[in-house]
Every structure is written in C-alpha cells, then in structure tokens.
Amino acid sequence: MARDADRPAATRRDAIRYCGAAGAGLLAGCTGNESTDEPGSNETDAGGSAEDPAGEDASADPYAVEMAPVGELSFEGAPDRVTTYFPGYADMCVALGVEDTLVAMGENYRYHDHHYAELDGVDVDTDGLEDIVLDTGIDKEIFYELDSDLHLVDPEWLVNNSFFGLERDDVAEIRDTVAPFFGNTVFRRTDPWHDYRYYTLYETFEKVAQVYGREDRYEALGAFHDEYVAEVQSRLPPVDDRPTALLTYGAGDEPDEFYPYRVSDRGTNNKQWHDLGVEGALAGTGVSGLSTSDRGTVDYETMLEVDPDAILVRSDTVRTADEFADTVLAYMRDHDVASRLTAVQEGRVIRGGPIYQGPLIHLFTLEAGARGLYPDEFGADEELFDRDEVAAIVTGGTE
Asked: How far is the C-alpha of 184 from the C-alpha of 67, rounded, in Å?
C-alpha cells in the first residue's frame, strides 16, 4: 500500500520488547522461555502505582510476562496505548484502573459496559474507542494509524478467521513494525486451530495485571470473587434439583434460528453457568458448539427433541430481565412449536449473558444467572455482591 514507504523498520516503542520468532510459526514468541507452570510463575513487580497507572515513574528494571501462544514479552514499563479485540480484555483494563490506555477494540457493540453505571467512579469512554473491524474485515493499515504500544490480541485469532482477511505475514509485519501481540482466545474452547494452552478468566486477568504492574488490583478482585462465588454456591439447590440448560445465540426480539453453545465448554463466556452448577442439555447429542469452523444452527423443532429445563438466549441487544420477558419469551409463548417447550411453559427462558466478559462483567452475569435460574432462592431485585466494595477496589480506594 501507499503508506509502506513511511513505515518504521522496527517496533515503535523499545520499552516493550518482543522476544522474536522461533520454532514453527512467525507468531511465536520466546518459545524456549515458555513455561507450562501455572500463571504467576513468571510474576515480577512491574512497578505501577495508583498515581502512575502506566508505571512510567517506577523502576526501569525490565520484567517479563509470558502467555501462550506468543510466549514471553519483556517490558520496561506498562503500555500507554493498547489495542485489543475482545471486550473481555477491555473489561480487565477497566478493572485494573488503566482504561485510559485503551485506544481501540474489536466488536465494540458486544461490550456490556453498561454495568459500570452501578459502580461509582468506574467508567470507560467507549465512544473514543476505534473499532478495528469493518464490514469488509480488518485492514492492517488500522494498526499503523492507531500506533499502539501493545496489541492485547491473540494473533492466532486474527489469522484463523477468514472474514478478517489477514494473512500470517500481515500479522507478523504488524508485530515487527508497530507493536507486539499478547493475548489468548479464551472466551470459548471449540476452535480446532487453538491447539495451545488455554487460560481461565482469572488466569488471563493475572497476565494482564502483570503487564500493567497492577497485581494488587488483581489479587483484591480475586479474593472478592472467591468469596462471592462461594456465597452464591452455598445457596444453590442440590445437584439433582438443578436444571439442564440449552445455551444459544438468537438475534432480535423474535428469534427462530439459534446458534448453539455447549455449556460444558470451559471458555470464559460460560463461567457464570459453571459457577451456578448448570448442566448442558446438549450432552450426549450430536450438536456441536459454535466455532470458527462450525456455524450450524438449531430451530424450535430441534430444541423440542432435547426439551431442556431452561433456555439461555444470547443476543447483541442489551435488555433488562423484564424487557427480555416482554419480547423473546413472549414471542416463544405465542409460537406454535416453541410454546410446547418445557422451558417456555415454565418461564425459564432467560438471558444467556455476553459472549465476552472480564472480571467485572462476570460479577453481574453471575448475579443475573442466579436470579433467572433459581428465582425461589434469589430474589428478582436482590443484589448478590457489594457494588461499593468493588468500586473501591477498582478505583484504588482500598489502597
């Protein structure tokens, strides 16, 4: 392209050093330094503070953070400008109090940032975030225009989605001439190309915290999360009394076609359902989960063959529980086939939660899921976690 002659020959910021390609792929990092130990084994003090979110005034001693599939990156300070793809990573930045470093994201419309309105002092300027995905895919020129210090993106996600139109050489070029990549596709585990290590939500969150030198926020939110989940689980009914659920994606207020997900999938998009002890209704069936290679759908006739106790419906529309009941559930009740489903007859058709979530959004999706699946135990308006305590952690009020 015309701008090629003006591009730098090396990464724009020496403070974040990519370890270099090695082994089988151009997108690999320092494969000789990768570890199979649990996250945290390479943890060092990145030197950030509440007064200096990016850690620029801290010690100049370099520190390393490792994550598959890239490997290890060496930092001399936290990044000032970050591009991500998954809104779950943006949620992690907000949770760490470094949301001002975000300059762009992919699929902005799937970012459930409305939850932050319930957390005093917590916010992110989504209008100021560039969307790197266009109707025609992703133009690699956008990465040059954004001029980020770090791409908090799994490079394999970019090269394994044909819609994006990016080749492996394109991503390697961006890595070498703009900034390195660092991230893992963790929201689902059904993509056949993802043959490297996965991470849980909080393992991923820990890696991002290490990049920014905000391990204190990670540890505080982790402790809060553990107590919160344990309290919710202590109120769940016995295992035999918990519902089977069909998790789907259905667009609009009157969906007739659904993309199925498998609740058994350990991706972060299902974390709240695992926390709530939900058993997937597709277990033992031939129906696969949504992935980059499987875009199969199910209709109400197929649902009726499974007839789950509950149906969890995702969409890109943000609705309250009442708005969902007045649209999607109301439509199903009037539908000739859907109205025969047990879940519809018993009113156990609820919102399926966002596809992408980080530690903050998960607190809300767990609460909503508990209310929807177990209304006899959790009141419709009961707040299951302390918003003020979470806000204090995120804003540094507990430091």
From this structure: 7
